[in-house]
Design a protein that fits this description.
Blueprint (H helix, E strand, L loop, with lengths): L8 H13 L4 H8 L3 H14 L15 H12 L5 H7 L5 H12 L11 H5 L7 H13 L4 H7 L4 H14 L19 H40 L9
């Protein structure tokens, strides 16, 4: 499913026509709609390059290859136009998107292709053997950590692939072992492991006590309000 704009197509076109007719200033239009002047400028730019079709709801989020992103980034760095100019020229819905790409590039961050596959985020986790985990992790690493592609290829969730790769990088194949339900007996623990287990137990205990205190506090507040309501009084207003 594509992203739906908070502002309707009709409102955008009305804003554009009002500005073009000279009936209202850009600042007045932006204020009346509740957007920034840069947003109105963006609408004007896209209208000039694509016409009214620029404001149609798209059937899905747009995908951008690494090569495309780099082309746009280099166009900006070579002085071929502002973010606003290039968003219209390359049909990128928001100039802020190009700004993000340039910021990442200048910050020496990896520029990656983007191809939205929402279902891999929502996919259910599934039980996977140790051998298949290793296969999935190796495939993902061999393909520049394309977690979404791996999730789609192996019919699992993005979160699973991401976590397996993270564990593999930290501990190798040993990190992919399923250790749920396997706890060392107390006598087999090292001193450090025993302390860690105790810290975890105390943390859980404290969290439970805090939750119980919060529930009790809310119950007392509800009881107090009910008592005041029965007496026909209003609770004091917080300042």
């Amino acid at each position: 499913m594509g992203r739906r704009s908070n502002t309707s197509k009709e409102t955008k076109l009305l804003a554009i026509r009002l500005y073009q007719s000279g009936e209202s200033s850009m600042e007045d239009i932006a204020t009346s709609i509740g957007v920034g002047k840069s947003t109105v400028r963006e609408w004007l730019s896209h209208d000039a390059s694509e016409g009214e079709s620029a404001f149609e709801d798209k059937p899905r989020n747009r995908s951008y290859t690494k090569a495309f992103k780099l082309e746009v980034i280099h166009a900006y760095l070579n002085g071929e136009g502002s973010y606003l100019d290039l968003s219209a020229r390359y049909h990128v819905p928001s100039h802020r998107t190009i700004n993000d790409w340039v910021m990442k590039y200048n910050g020496h961050e990896e520029i990656e292709s983007y191809d939205p596959r929402g279902h891999v985020y929502m996919a259910k986790t599934r039980k996977v053997s140790q051998e298949e985990k290793i296969e999935i992790v190796r495939w993902t690493l061999e393909h520049d950590s394309q977690y979404k592609l791996a999730a789609e290829k192996y019919e699992t969730s993005y979160a699973q692939v991401y976590n397996w790769v993270k564990k593999y990088k930290a501990s190798g194949e040993e990190g992919l072992q399923d250790r749920r339900g396997r706890h060392k007996p107390e006598e087999e623990l090292t001193e450090v492991e025993r302390l860690r287990r105790e810290v975890k137990r105390l943390s859980l205990s404290n969290a439970r006590l805090e939750l119980e205190a919060e529930v009790l506090k809310k119950a007392e507040e509800t009881e107090r309000r009910d008592r005041l309501a029965r007496l026909g009084k209003k609770p004091p207003t917080k300042r």
